[in-house]
Amino acid sequence: MTKKTTWSDRFESALHPAIAIFNASIGFDIELIEYDLTGSVAHAKMLAKTGIISEEEAQQLEQGLEKIRQEYRQGEFNPGVDAEDVHFAVERRLTEILGDVGKKLHTGRSRNDQVGTDIRLYLKAEINEIRTYLREFQSVLLNLAENNIETLIPGYTHLQRAQPLSLAHHLMAYVQMAQRDWERLGDVLKRTNISPLGCGALAGTTFPIDRHYSAELLGFESIYENSLDGVSDRDFAIEFLCAASLIMVHLSRLSEEMILWASEEFNFISLKDSCATGSSIMPQKKNPDVPELVRGKTGRVFGHLQALLVIMKGLPLAYNKDLQEDKEGIFDAVKTVKGCLEAMTILLSEGIIFNQTRLNSAVAEDFSNATDVADYLATKGVPFREAYNLVGKVVKTSLAQGKLLKDLTIEEWQQIHPAFATDIYEAISPKTVVSARNSYGGTGFEQVKIAIANAKSELKQ
Ligand code: ARG
Predict the structure, then answer these.
(1) Which of 158, 274, 439, 457 is catalytic?
(2) Angle 49-51-56 (CA atoms, 0-180°, nearest 5)?
(3) What residue owns the CA closest to ligand 1's atom 12?
(4) Of the candidates 344, 304, 293, 308, which has an alpha carbon nearest to the alpha carbon of residue 177?
(5) Is 15 helix (H, G, I), strand (E, B) or coil?
(6) Number of folded domains that form the chain
(7) What predicted TM-score, i.e. pTM, was given to this entire model?
(8) Do 198 and 47 touch, CB atoms closer than 8 A?
């Protein structure tokens, strides 16, 4: 414990080796290096513009920073734990390259506003990427929907057969969820797009800096109004994790449906070999690992949201080292959401086949047309509640006789109520049942076509 560290002469000796490891964030914040370099270039330019350093010094700093970028990209810059974090690692290397000029870079800023800038630049880029992934996910769903407007699938409430649906309508529900996710991320972007650079350690700086200028160079829309808030705010990160969690909720619900659909009990889809796995002992098995993993990974994203909320809740102003704990969860959430969106997009585009024969028979062999019998009577003037009760009795006796509604003879129908005519058979066929639900946003084929067209034009924007 004799070697000196980055710290000022106030410190006599280096950190205990175990504490150095405990304290260091370089193992994960190296992920931010590109943004750290970009942020530093902007800071150096601002220092020159305001006359705090010379133009020549700023140019040297920029060249030094770009050299580090090249070294990093070529795998030649691998700072260890002794660098503590990415910010110190870069500054140390810069001083090795430039000598005393390198030591001028940190004028008028602190690692507190620096790390805040880095994480915002990182999230801005990643939010845009995730939005692109969402668009691809939506367009694959849209494609599937377009090809399956007249494919029918049982619709459920309480996981009990309810009313048959257009498969496209079912898929389009997820397009809508993803649309809200896309919009929500756009909203998060607004509050991520604010620059804390120049807030200093907590109170601003004595140098005549130009925060608007560095913010503009970095593509930020505005700057934090209050320096304490600027260095300690992580609302945008929590908002991002909320948005990420909701994306995972939607992916997880779709996953759950696909897992059910792939089971022998449902048998609505088959998994293609490219997206399914086998068992090490049961040769007959083909497992839906992709949706299962997505469902499972949802838990870790929720965990990151919860963790950051708890990290923040007791923090006094302004920066506290607790904030170093924000990064790993954010990085992991970004990677998890992108990985899950990509895997689900592949699964939907080439990993599943809808079993049309099975779907056709599924919708034809249940009582999910019972509402339509009641509606039929109601259109002929029978009050709906009375019709509903009559049909309930019919379902009960049919079940006892092992019959479906379509198996009743016209005499049987007319015994139930004289209003029944031979058009009842057409009225309760699955296709009619679905296409008749032509109310706005319903599953009727005409409505589904409108929904697909609307979503397509939305996606073009
Ligand atoms: N590694 C630190 C973090 O991730 C950087 C900021 C450190 N600031 C400080 N005052 N110790 O939060």
Answers:
(1) 158
(2) 75
(3) 324
(4) 344
(5) coil
(6) 3
(7) 0.95
(8) no
Asked if residue 260 and residue 131 are part of one domain, the reply reads: yes
Distance from Cα 115 to the centre of ligand 1, integer Å: 7
pLDDT tens string 99-112: 999 999 999 999 99
Ligand 1, atom 4, lies closest to the CA of 324
Q: Could you confirm whether 170 is annotated as catalytic?
A: no
Nearest ligand 1 atom to the CA of 323 is 12
One domain for residues 195 and 323 = yes
Please name which of 25, 294, 239 lies closest in space to residue 127, comparing C-alpha atoms: 239
pLDDT in tens, 109-118: 999 999 999 9
End-of-domain residue from the set 51, 77, 107: 107
- Give the largest CA-CA distance in the chain: 102
Q: Are 394 and 404 spatial neighbours (Cβ–Cβ below 8 Å)? A: no
Q: Single out the residue in 73, 107, 141 at which a domain terminates.
A: 107
Model pLDDT, residue 276: 85
Query: Which residue among the candidates 13, 222, 279, 361 is catalytic per the annotation?
Result: 279
C-alpha span between 453 and 445 (Å, rounded):
12
In the prediction, which pLDDT does 1 show?
38
CA distances from 373 to 366, 395, 418 (A): 13, 11, 13
**Domain region containing 280:** 112-206+225-361
Cβ contacts of 333 within 8 Å, gap of 6 or more: 240, 241, 244, 300, 301, 304, 305
Which residues are near ligand 1 (CB < 6 Å)? 25, 29, 85, 87, 111-112, 115, 319, 321, 323-324
* Cα-to-centroid distance, 322 and ligand 1 (Å): 9
- Output the CA 443–ligand 1 centroid distance in Å: 54
Residue 211 lies in a domain: no
152-193: pLDDT as tens digits: 999 999 999 999 999 999 999 999 999 999 999 999 999 999
Q: Calculate what percentage of the chain has a pLDDT beyond 90.
A: 93
User: 140 and 254 share a domain?
Assistant: yes
**Do the beta carbons of residue 208 and residue 53 sit within 8 Å?**
no
Residues 304 and 367 in one domain: no
Q: How far is the CA of 180 from the centre of ligand 1 (A)?
A: 34
Look up residue 400 and give its two tokens.
């006892």
The CA-to-CA distance between both ends of the chain, in Å, stands at 60
- What would the two tokens of residue 27 be? 């193992």
Give the separation between CA 106 and CA 57, rounded to whole angstroms. Answer: 13
Q: What is the CATH number of the domain that holds 368?
A: 1.10.40.30
- 435 carries an active-site annotation: no
Provide the CATH number for the domain around residue 196: 1.20.200.10
Q: What is the structure's pLDDT at 5? A: 58
Q: To test the ligand 1 pocket, which listed residue (5, 118, 323, 325) has its Cβ within 8 A of the most ligand atoms?
A: 323
Q: Which DSSP letter does residue 351 get? A: I
Residue 355: strand, helix, or coil: coil
